[in-house]
Amino acid sequence: MVSGKVKKPGKRGRKPAKIDLKAKLERSRQSARECRARKKLRYQYLEELVSSKERAICALREELEMYKQWCSAMDQGKIPSEIKALLTGDEQKTPQSGSSTKTSKNSKNISSNGQV
């Protein structure tokens, strides 16, 4: 022992401070509250996303049904007035459904470009 200091055998590093158990418990509770709040927000976001996708699906189904009706009418030799308007270039809007203006724009893109 050259330096005169005697090393004690044991753990190295910091000694654990005496942790106030009440403070630790309160931090744990606060963390749990924040976790539940984040989870609630995440579920609200996902529910809104699902409902918007369901609305979009319904609109697309209505549009598909309209196209099916047009096809069945054309199979019978009848040309629907909406298609006549698109072929002649008239911008007359028939009061059929809310998606008719959207479909006429899509149909116009198909007829002029040859692509969707």
TrEMBL record:
<protein>
    <recommendedName>
        <fullName>cAMP-responsive element-binding protein-like 2</fullName>
    </recommendedName>
</protein>
<dbReference type="GO" id="GO:0003677">
    <property type="term" value="F:DNA binding"/>
</dbReference>
<dbReference type="InterPro" id="IPR046347">
    <property type="entry name" value="bZIP_sf"/>
</dbReference>
<dbReference type="GO" id="GO:0003700">
    <property type="term" value="F:DNA-binding transcription factor activity"/>
</dbReference>
<keyword id="KW-0805">Transcription regulation</keyword>
<feature type="compositionally biased region" description="Low complexity">
    <location>
        <begin position="97"/>
        <end position="116"/>
    </location>
</feature>
<dbReference type="InterPro" id="IPR039250">
    <property type="entry name" value="CREBL2/REPTOR-BP"/>
</dbReference>
<dbReference type="InterPro" id="IPR004827">
    <property type="entry name" value="bZIP"/>
</dbReference>
<keyword id="KW-0221">Differentiation</keyword>
<dbReference type="GO" id="GO:0005634">
    <property type="term" value="C:nucleus"/>
</dbReference>
<feature type="domain" description="BZIP">
    <location>
        <begin position="21"/>
        <end position="70"/>
    </location>
</feature>
<comment type="similarity">
    <text>Belongs to the bZIP family. ATF subfamily.</text>
</comment>
<feature type="region of interest" description="Disordered">
    <location>
        <begin position="1"/>
        <end position="20"/>
    </location>
</feature>
<feature type="region of interest" description="Disordered">
    <location>
        <begin position="86"/>
        <end position="116"/>
    </location>
</feature>
<keyword id="KW-0010">Activator</keyword>
<feature type="compositionally biased region" description="Basic residues">
    <location>
        <begin position="1"/>
        <end position="16"/>
    </location>
</feature>
<keyword id="KW-0238">DNA-binding</keyword>
<dbReference type="GO" id="GO:0030154">
    <property type="term" value="P:cell differentiation"/>
</dbReference>
<keyword id="KW-0539">Nucleus</keyword>
<keyword id="KW-0804">Transcription</keyword>
<dbReference type="Pfam" id="PF07716">
    <property type="entry name" value="bZIP_2"/>
</dbReference>
